[in-house]
Amino acid sequence: MTQALSLPNRDKTVEEAFLPSQAEGRLLAFDSGIGGLGVVAALRRHLPLAGIDYLADTALFPYGEQDDAVLSRHIVTLIDRAIETIRPDAVVIACNTASTLALTALREKRPDIPFIGCVPAVRWAARISQSRVIGLLATRATVRRPYVAALHEQYAPDCTLVAYGARYLADYAEAVFRGETIDPELMRQEAMGLFGQPNGERIDAVALGCTHYTFLVEALRAVSPPHVAWLDPANAVARQTASVLEARVMKDMPLKETNRLWFTAPPKDSALLEEHLLPFGYSHAGLWKPRSL
Ligand code: DGL
To answer: Does residue 254 carry a pLDDT above 60?
Structure first.
């Protein structure tokens, strides 16, 4: 069954309050698949004059199931090459699994380029939680990272953090993006991975720790306790990107050669996928072949 795709959820309180930035510039946004397009939607609202190229590393999807050392080397090599080819003013790592693993290595490798990462909204969850029990929903790789333990220690020391590393949610998000509907029982099983843990019933705020989950918020909400707040950091990433572009001296490159989208390997159901790219500003998906660009 297919359904129309609506753009990812918008944080109305934030949206009502902001004026879009007038900054121009070329961005490269990066993820393992479609997840980062939720961040792109936020970038387009906050930075309507910026050009945004998008690279999806479908060859290694799902990132959450890859070996850390292999993945880190791979990401650094791929992004370094992409920077050489595309010459962006800033790179948005629109993927928590990549950010929590490789952001430091990327900044060391390319100190000439600002990187904006995505990290789970643990701090935000701690700020709004009444019960002082917060949830984290992320890939299995992100959940086991010391980065997350450090976020908890630094920003939510008085909160109990209940984390669930989900094996299948990123795949479900890829399917939902293509217009499919996921069996609510499968969604319920994933939600139970979080709320079924000790203290899980006391969770009142969940930090989304994987950009793919932006496309699952409504499906998750439908099978979870109704009082829970689902926190998507996409708008915060867009605001941070806007302040980076506003502070940067731009390269003098024509903006028309931008708003391109590539995959590193042909993705599943690529024709179906392409149909849903237009609302994000992409009319065509290409295969990533840096030499031919
Ligand atoms: N979108 C990615 C993230 O934010 C990960 C999905 C995956 O490839 O496992 O973590």
So the answer is: no
Task: Indicate which residues carry an active-site annotation.
Answer: 95, 210
pLDDT of residue 4: 39
Residues 212, 214, 219, 222: is their CA dihedral positive or negative? positive
Q: What is the pLDDT of residue 253?
A: 57
Amino acid letter at 285? A
Q: Which of 171, 210, 217, 237 to mutate to test the pocket of ligand 1 (most atoms within 8 A of CB)?
A: 210
256: confidence class by pLDDT, cuts 50, 70, 90 = low
Ligand 1 surroundings by CB, under 6 angstroms: 31-33, 35, 61-64, 95-97, 139, 142, 170, 210-212
**What is the Å distance from ligand 1's center to 214 Cα?**
11
What is the mean pLDDT of the segment spanning 76-103? 96
